[in-house]
Specification:
This protein is of the alpha/beta class and 358 residues long. It contains 14 helices and 10 strands. The protein has 2 domains: 258 residues, no CATH class; 87 residues, Winged helix-like DNA-binding domain superfamily/Winged helix DNA-binding domain (Arc Repressor Mutant, subunit A, Orthogonal Bundle), CATH 1.10.10. It starts with a strand and ends with a helix. It comes from Streptomyces hiroshimensis. Keywords: DNA-binding, Transcription, Transcription regulation. This is Transcriptional regulator.
Length: 358
Amino acid sequence: MSVEIDIAGLPHERIVFNPSPLAELGAMLHVLAEPGHHPGLHGWATATASGLRPDLADRLTEADFLWRSARSDLLLPAAPRATLAEELDDLDRMDDEKFVSAAFEVTCSSERSVPSPLVDAEQRVRVRELSAARGPRQAQFTDRMLENPAALRAWLRRLLEDCEEAFFADNWQRVRVQLVADARHKADLLRRKGLAEAMTAVSTAVSLSGDGTRIVFDKLQNGRAAAPADGLTFVPTAFGWPHLIVLNRPGWRPMVQYPVAAPELPRGPALQLVRQRMEALAHPVRMRLCRTLARGPHTTGELASVFGLTPPEVSRHIAVMKKAGLLSTRRRGRYVLHQLDLPVVARLGSDFLETVLR
């Protein structure tokens, strides 16, 4: 499973790396709404949430469906600007139908190509039903946007501006230098070593297809988009890990928000490897072998004797576990000793969670 962006014919100089204040604010708002996704930021989330004015906290809750379970495309500008105000100005220039459709796409649409509820009565009824099921706050927000989109858009802009004053401005100044440096580094890699090298540097979950016509994102979903002639934007984020966001909404310019590398952040394995490890451990015989191999190194013959299996049977199970990277092996004379790699197994839960949240 993967999301792909078709870049056939796109000059590599039109693939750009640039920080976005609005995208980073969206990442911060997501951390505040879902701190469980970001264990390394619990302290920041707690301190920031406790410092919010009650009225601001209430307004954030009213609109949090725009960034809680998934990030609204409205918060992911494909043409980043230097300031939050400039990016909000760009949002103001968007027509109401496109704005409202994108606002409700996160939780009120099963398909990205559905018409705007402003122009389609059936979709308007559906959006109201889905938002009502999610609670009175979202239902009220939905009604306000459908009845007076201009007023609601002004309300939302003021909310984001109040976030800038309350916590974003200080945090943006703190991380902006890091994000600019990361974007400059990726652009330099692209220029000097090529697109494949730059994509590898973005994330272990990003690669270039063998024919060089597609950028492939290793995710638990399928999607396909084509980069327009004016290019493709990669936006670094300091608050976004472990999420790797690929905006591939039809009719929108694709963009990618990727977490910047940091020493304290793990470089997770590929989705295929996580799946392979979980499948290897799910077999009842291999689970029993793990119990013994977790306690110390054993030879194939020892394991066969303990579990009443033939050596070839044990060898086949050992081969599966070795291929999944779950065992360490060393030779002692003419004997080969196998042992469960405890750190790898211990990380499997966090690796799985990172893959799911990616």
